[in-house]
Amino acid sequence: MSSCIDTSELKQIIMQIVASIPQGKVASYGQVAKLCGYSGYGRYVGSILKRLPSSTTLPWHRVINARGVISFPIGSEAHIKQLSLLFKEGVDSENGKISMRIYGWSI
DNA sequence: CCTGTGACCGGTA
DNA sequence: ATACCGGCCACAG
Predict the structure, then answer these.
(1) A4: Cβ under 7 Å from strand C?
(2) Which of A7, A21, A45, A80 has its CA 20 to 30 A from that of A68?
(3) What is the DSSP string of A42-103?
(4) pLDDT surpassing 60 at residue A2
(5) Between the CA of A77 and the C1' of C11, what is the distance in angstroms?
């Protein structure tokens, strides 16, 4: 079956939610999807962020997975880049586990 | 149209 | 605590 939703609209909502994540805090892919009103679309959130141009101003680095870690292989360029961006914002992490979550944060 | 692929997630062993 | 599994769903080939 083809998509049963308006993907272009969902894409914009996702970008809006990600853009509104406060500096120094993070959200999971599933959390972003749920905040959009589309629970279960975590994978889609990832696919959207993947296509972002390198020149984007969207804080994509504030989105991690539900296990509290960066969803890139440790040591990969993307992982190093995301970690440094988060570290620069003062995100607290121990052994790669991000502790400053976004739970309780409202739109 | 059918199949494989993810920057995912929650439950189970 | 870690490892695996099945479900998830748009998208590319």
Answers:
(1) yes
(2) A7
(3) HHHHHHHHHT--TT--S-GGGEE-TTSS-SS-TTSHHHHHHHHHHHHTT--EETTEE----T
(4) yes
(5) 25
- For residue A21, count other CB atoms closer than 10 A to its CB: 21
**Chain A 67-106 residues in 7 Å CB range of strand C:** none
| Lookup: tokens for A95 | 């052994």
Q: Specify the pLDDT at position A17.
A: 97
Nearest nucleotide, CA A8 to C1': C10
Question: Do residues A69 and A96 lie in contact, with contact meaning Cβ atoms separated by under 8 Å?
Answer: yes
What is residue A96's predicted lDDT score, i.e. its pLDDT?
Answer: 84
Locate A64 and state its tokens: 């991690």
Could you give the domains of chain A?
7-98 (1.10.10.10)
Closest nucleotide to A32: CA versus each C1'? B8
